[in-house]
# Entry
Amino acid sequence: SVFSSPAFAAMVMLTMPVLKQSSFCCGVPVISLSEPDSGTLLVRACEDLGLFKVTDHGIPMELIARLEEEALQFFALPAADKELAGKANPFSYGSKSIGSNGDLGWVEYLLMEITSKPLSMDFLQKPSASSFRSVLNEYILEVRNLACRILELMAQGLGIEPSDVFSKLVMDGESDSMLRLNHYPPCPMLQELNGFMTGFGEHTDPQIISVLRSNNTAGLEISLRDDSWVPVLPDQESFFINVGDSLQVLTNGRFRSVKHRVLANALKSRLSMIYFGGPPPGERLAPLPLLMAEGEQSQYREFTWCEYKCCAYKTLLADNRLDRFHK
Ligand code: GA4
# Structure
């Protein structure tokens, strides 16, 4: 037929814009930040899944490895010493209990508030914690810059100006961001149970953007639109980025705040470090007018980040936190 003729094929190739496909790893888009087209690819990934993997990110592996080592050393301390780092309310050390409303998981963690100043938690001020403290502070600067670059690429990919519309929110001196170190110890009874154990229950992240790095242990899963769960293969050299509720609101639902969870592993321990980039407390969250088509209405009633966060912290992990702000 005419469709199989070489002339037709040549015509199609000349007239159709070549849509660059990102490569995929088990359904997760993989985007190199040195790719000239990365903005477009990021946008597509945020619309489709709400999560993607980033390579060529520029954060030195040596820094990441140092933080991993310090974190593992911390989690290897006797329970009593870790407890000294403070009860999680919501900052500092916590074990099995997540948030303050009864969620439980097979996990222990350190949750740290990021301000414009270096970390100030008591347990990090001890001389013995000085190398942990300095690597944490270094890492925070790097990962925040990475979040900023990615948010700028997103704005470019969306074709909106100025390119810092999103990134300025996490770079602001008042921005309410956090760093979380999660340690999922092996869960040997899983082998006998022949089932699964929740490490960190299903939830969406309330902030704008989350930047996750883990060691080589599996466990992270994301929920697709049909409510099925798919595992995200670990990759210790790359970062996984996911859209938070606030970015879903800023894009009027165009970007998807992805539901995810972590399952415990029977044999290996998993260590992840996640930067949550949030806006300043007083920031009004509403869809960017530049992203609205003519006549398009906001899906959400307007609210400030502190209003959202305050409600969010009263919910259970699995609750849909954006529901009550839906119009
Ligand atoms: C999920 C994303 C971040 O880990 C976090 C979590 C927070 C916490 O652990 O204190 C919350 C959870 C997270 C959302 C609902 C509330 C608050 C636990 C919980 C049950 C630090 C965040 O900002 O929101």
User: Anything to note?
Assistant: The mean pLDDT is 92. The chain has ten helices and 15 strands. The pocket of gibberellin A4 is lined by residues 90, 98-99, 101, 103, 111, 178, 180, 203, 205-206, 276, 312-313, 315-317 (CB under 6 Å). The longest helix spans residues 130-158.
